[in-house]
């Protein structure tokens, strides 16, 4: 049976503002083999799946379009952001939803957590579902954010999964969590 490895040492390497890096020496508690491993340590993240009706009464996802430096592309995503040290996931989700879209709600719940890449990343992403949205103010974007909002009818979203604009694995993970919950409710 595979067991958790033992951390023998942990060395801080660098701080890149949105993540830190470490070298850890770990040893297998079964075989005794050991090695050096490199970790990327970002803060935890939150992603919000906001749902509201468009002017035709269709249930839609409220999504954001923004430029992403890593992929050098404009992507279609859900509002998301890093959890501040003093926040819990729902507080972060409400803050990011309001900042990126101008909407707020009291109907928000956690639907799951995933590790973006447990091979070398230490954080988790909490996915939240938000309903009964109310427009409360204009966007309040961070210094380097340029974000457009878009209502995407839910019945049309499945055609977009895996396309260039929704190639973000975190978005697809959030949709998978939501689809699984809907499937369970249908049983």
From TrEMBL:
Q: Give a yes or no for keyword Manganese in this entry.
A: no
> What GO biological process terms does the UniProt entry carry, in alphabetical order?
nucleoside phosphate metabolic process; ribose phosphate metabolic process
For activity, the cofactor(s) needed are: Mg(2+)
Q: Which UniProt keywords apply?
A: Hydrolase
Q: Which residues form the Nudix hydrolase domain?
A: 42-178
Spell out the reaction equation it catalyses: GDP-alpha-D-mannose + H2O = alpha-D-mannose 1-phosphate + GMP + 2 H(+)
Molecular-function GO terms, alphabetical: hydrolase activity
Highest taxon, organism lineage? Bacteria
A Pfam family of this chain: NUDIX
Which SUPFAM superfamilies did the record assign?
Nudix
What the entry lists under PANTHER family is as follows:
NUDIX HYDROLASE DOMAIN-CONTAINING PROTEIN, UDP/ADP-SUGAR PYROPHOSPHATASE
UniProt lists the family membership as follows:
Belongs to the Nudix hydrolase family. NudK subfamily.
| Protein name in UniProt | GDP-mannose pyrophosphatase
